[in-house]
Amino acid sequence: MDVTVKIKRYDPESNNADYVWQEYPIAIDENATVLDALIQIREDDDGTLSLRCSCRSAICGSCAMKINGQGGLACKTKASESMDKDGVIRVEPAGNMDTVKDLVADFDMFWNKIREIEPYLQPEGEVPDGEYVVSNESMLHLSAVTACILCGACVSDCTVLEVDKSFLGPAALAKAYRFTADPRDGNEDGVSRDRLKVLGQPSGMWDCTRCNMCVQVCPKGVAPMDRIMAMHDQAIEAGYGNNNGARHADAFIESVGHTGRLDELRLPVKTVGITNIPALLGFAPVGWRAMTHGKLPPLIHKSVEDVQIIRNLYRKLEQ
Amino acid sequence: MKYAFYPGCVSQGGAPELYPAAKLICDRLDIELEEIHAWTCCGAGVMQEKNQLFSDTLNARNLAKAEQQGLTIMTICSTCQGVIAQANTRLLADPDYLAEINGYLAEEGLEYKGTAQIKHLLWILIEDYGLDNLLPHVTRSLGGLRLAPFYGCYIVRPTEALGIEDHPERQTSLETLIETLGATAVDYDGKTKCCGFPILTINEKNSMSMVGNHTSEAKDLGADAMVTPCPLCHLNLDGYQPKAARQANRSIDLPILHLPQLIGLAMGISPSELGLKKHIINTAPLELKLAGSTSS
Ligand code: FES
Asked: Residue A105: helix, strand or coil by DSSP?
């Protein structure tokens, strides 16, 4: 099978250190992975190509990179399924991180964020005589998160990290959930209050934009964004709901629960808090522009027909 | 052709130009719309995060009503499309869960059997209506226009709920439509990224960076306008573009069109009828270019 592997290369020691795209037309086995193709290039065509790999079986997490613009493991991606109609596969180093050389990304930022969430159990109550007994159910639930192999594909493609490197990011937040959802962490009831407080600070869990990118690119089904959403719930439950993110979710569900639809005019006001005058004034120019263009949401928010049915459901399921 | 129409809150709220534009082009294309009676908000992913059971119950209610109508659901919002499809996937995956929710719906005499189909107008035009049938309606050539597609997260991810495996063409559907209408699709990195709207009131700076990045990337590649099937993206990309431009310390001025507006323009419908005057970013330069390409 003929394929052209187009690699985004970078050599910090060359005179004009900049990215260059280099093409390698090669013949590979039908069943070859993208990693097989890259190793073949390094062995047979160009010994200067740098890349990271070890297990070749999607276990060690070292070969994450961008394949056709999307983060993933090169050893878990079939070359035949990655070629475009011209037989080209585009390969780049993982995104959102600096590049050391060619396809080798600098993982310092990644590990710093993992360290920041203190990735070890922190029980607060009495130490039990024997071992901590944990239900099978809660361990099964956690196993989906502990499946993370720390490859960095989610960090590579995170749309928030792209604009703000201070964001904790999907990998560290999913790792944090691994502890907030562990019954051994936190107080006797397994509530990790201290963690949830810290994780709710700016650059933490509420900064996730719910774009589903991490869910899509994770090669292990960890679904980091879904864990972040679950952590929002834990934080509100633990009493850390005094922020825009939590108020936004509250105001949203209340609006729909009472009228069946979203009241777009009142949502932002309730989110920042009715007494937050500076933030409310911040909305004014946008509101004014909307009004002068005839697109301010209706001032009187109408309820759907049969709204009593919705209100009953809301009372039963939410309150 | 007839669909159970699910307009979504934003098409009648923050982006009121969308609802009439969608109705207008469907009418001209002989696509009959029967609005789902007393439909409720899909939850936009926000409600799911707080109370999945409640939001899935409301979506099951919408789905059951469409099922009674015996029609495929038409959405005109990427977020509604993705959120309802995800709820449907959860309901179909777990019979006990579906039974529990049907228990709540029973009080209203409703039951969701699990047969509803949910499709965005974008997919309907390509898969059901057919581009060959659309072409005779195209009376105004968009030749010479460069248009940047902007999908909206929920219509591209996660792929399982969206049937992408069976319909890989959905991943390039916007480009397909743009090119069919005679314009050139601008290819750029941002087209499947996040518009930043969900964090607008939580981290405005980041939200504005996203708007600024995508619109200026498209603009710098020569785009005359951006087209989106998602009114939530439109709110941010259009409504907040002046603020994003200020933060980026540059001018952008890229008009953002709703998908039905683009189709309407190609069908020769006037910009004012399609509600272009309601946009925050002035569409006059685009209209001027359009007029030029029609007369030439
Ligand atoms: S080489 Fe170990 S995960 Fe790919």
From this structure: strand
